[in-house]
Amino acid sequence: MNKDPTDMIWQIVPKLNHEMSRIRGNLLSASEGKDLRTLIVSSALPKEGKTTTAVALAYGLVTQANTRVVLVDGNDKSPALARVFQIPETPGLVGVLTGTASLETAVCETHVPGLKVLPFGDVNHRGDLFSQTGFKELITRLRDTCDYVILDSSSLMTSSGATLATADFQGVILVIRCESTKRVVVHESLDLLRRIHGNVLGVVLNRRVFHIPRFVFRWL
Fold first, then answer.
1. Cβ contacts of residue 126 below 8 Å, gap of 6+?
2. Cα–Cα distance measured from residue 34 to residue 37, given in angstroms and rounded to the nearest whole number
3. Most exposed: 30, 82, 97, 169, by fewest CB within 10 Å?
4. Residues 6+ apart with CB under 8 A from 196
5. CA distances from residue 15 to 18, 19, 53, 72, 91 in whole angstroms, order as listed
6. How confident is the model at residue 88 (pLDDT cuts 50, 70, 90)?
7. For the purposes of burial, counting CB atoms within 10 Å of the CB of 169, is it exposed (0-12), middle (13-18) or buried (19 or more)?
8. Which pLDDT tens digit goes with each residue over 13-66?
9. What is d(CA 48, CA 204) in angstroms, rounded to the nearest whole number?
10. What are the backbone angles phi and psi of residue 112, rounded to the nearest 5°?
């Protein structure tokens, strides 16, 4: 029986403290003097580690930087945050944007103090969510309730949702799976983000393989 990948996230997240602390430091430095509080975590292709990175970043901001974070599931292809945090999938983002639920009832508390999650909602919804005026207003409302809003999005090359959502966020973090995603695909993703005026804050290299011992690598 294959193990659900979402079950493994909480085994991985505590081990990413060092890497996430560097990202948090870069984020705080980049936001100095700027209103940089809404972030979208995306990737070129599926299964590159977007959700793990988004959860780890949110977890680190809450536990290490003492901030309040709302993590939003914007992956219209394969939403996972409801399973990760073991919260109800609905009404979620879909419920709020279709008018069947209020934002207050859709946002869920989690086992991590200071971290709330807005799950995606009905996975069978086929309408366009991210080009609506209501989506931008929703992000603005969430921003007024916390320090950071982080969107776990779909991948750039397989869904228009990620590109549409990018316009409403102040910063983009791109996750790349090392030695898997082709260089040309990475460049295409970055070119796409530039065309839509995405503010790329940095790139996370996921599953990096060390061909020499890690402790030696750090001294080179």
1. none
2. 9
3. 30
4. 163, 166, 167
5. 8, 9, 12, 23, 32
6. very high
7. buried
8. 665 666 666 676 767 666 666 678 999 999 999 999 899 999 989 988 898 888
9. 10
10. -100, 110
3-state secondary structure of 123: coil
In this structure, are residues 89 and 120 in contact, taking their beta carbons and an 8 Å threshold?
yes
Query: What confidence score (pLDDT) does residue 120 get?
Result: 97
pTM of the prediction? 0.85
Q: Give me the residue label for tokens 């709302």.
A: 70
Helix residue spans in 16-86 (DSSP H):
17-30, 50-63, 81-85
- What is the model's pLDDT at position 118? 98
β-partners of residue 202 are: 173
At position 107, the amino acid (one-letter code) is V
Residue found by looking up tokens 């990202």 in the block: 23
Compute φ and ψ for 119, nearest 5 degrees. -70, 170
pLDDT at 5 over 80: no
